[in-house]
Automatic annotation (TrEMBL):
This is Transport permease protein. The chain crosses the membrane at residues 27-49, 61-81, 102-130, 136-158, 170-188, 225-247. GO terms for cellular component: ATP-binding cassette (ABC) transporter complex. Residues 25-250 form the ABC transmembrane type-2 domain. Belongs to the ABC-2 integral membrane protein family. It comes from the Bacteria. It comes from Actinopolymorpha pittospori. Pfam families: ABC2_membrane (PF01061). It is found in: Cell membrane; Membrane. It is a multi-pass membrane protein. One of its GO terms (biological process) is response to antibiotic. GO terms for molecular function: ABC-type transporter activity. InterPro entries: ABC2_TM, ABC2_TM_bact-type, ABC_2_transport, Nod_factor_ABC_transporter.
Length: 252
């Protein structure tokens, strides 16, 4: 049974990945937009923000990486919504394939596409002056956190993809996720923000994730890693449960 699931999921993932490579606007939005934001913040705003001994490109890169993921997973919702509305799911379910493989194909496509976008953003950051003395284990830890965060947001994206009534509603949910890093420690220290805003920024999930990635890349003591992991795993589990419930209701 597991063999059929893996084989079916692999074939369906290949299908959705081909759709991504054929969609130029997807590639532009998921990679070019975060790069443009990075250029804007480093070369326009960076000189006005005091980040101590850490260069601003090093300071803000973790936040840009999270924005890259948030931008990318919005297309997961749109692809899923399009398949649901186009009757593709019903056609697949009429075939002798694993039903959950159809949903997992979209999740794995999101993961692969976002990893590619993240690599492109890091390469551009290197050209802009980003440097890190972090070792292999630190980079693996960063990769693990980013993958967990991608999976968590992807399963959140699945829910509106299954339940939205219109394409506009399916795509609009991603905007709060994209803007959440702006009210965090991603671009400025939280202690420079007004009281209520600073309190929210200090205790929302993005801040702990950004701080952990930043500390790992700058070889600083990592104080928020367990909080970051708890947020990622908690969001992932909750989103997965709600997404699978929504999926079963739609295909029942």
């Amino acid at each position: 049974m597991a063999t059929y699931f893996l084989g079916d999921t692999a074939v369906l993932t290949g299908r959705t990945l081909r759709h991504v490579t054929r969609s130029l606007d997807t590639i532009i939005t998921t990679a070019i937009t975060p790069i443009a934001m990075m250029l804007l913040f480093v070369y326009v705003f960076g000189g006005a923000i005091d980040t101590g001994s850490v260069s601003y490109v090093n300071y803000m890169l973790p936040g840009i990486l999270l924005i890259t993921i948030a931008s990318g997973i919005s297309y997961t919702t749109l692809r899923l919504f399009t398949d649901m509305q186009g009757g593709i799911f019903e056609r697949f379910h009429s075939m002798p394939i694993a039903r959950s493989g159809v949903l997992w194909a979209h999740v794995l496509t999101s993961l692969v596409a976002n990893v590619i976008s993240l690599v492109v953003v890091v390469l551009v950051a290197l050209v802009m002056g980003f440097r890190s003395g972090a070792g292999v284990l630190a980079w693996l830890a960063v990769a693990g956190i980013l993958i967990l965060f991608t999976l968590a947001l992807t399963w959140i994206a699945v829910i509106p993809g299954l339940t939205a009534k219109s394409v506009d509603g399916a795509g609009a949910y991603a905007y709060p996720l994209i803007f959440l890093p702006f009210i965090s420690s991603a671009f400025v220290p939280t202690d420079t923000m007004p009281g209520p805003v600073g309190a929210f920024a200090e205790h929302q999930p993005v801040t702990s994730i950004v701080n952990t990635i930043r500390d790992l890349l700058t070889q600083q003591p990592v104080g928020d890693i367990w909080t970051a992991l708890a947020w990622c795993v908690g969001i992932l589990v909750a989103a997965y449960v709600f997404a699978t419930i929504s999926y079963r209701r739609r295909i029942s």
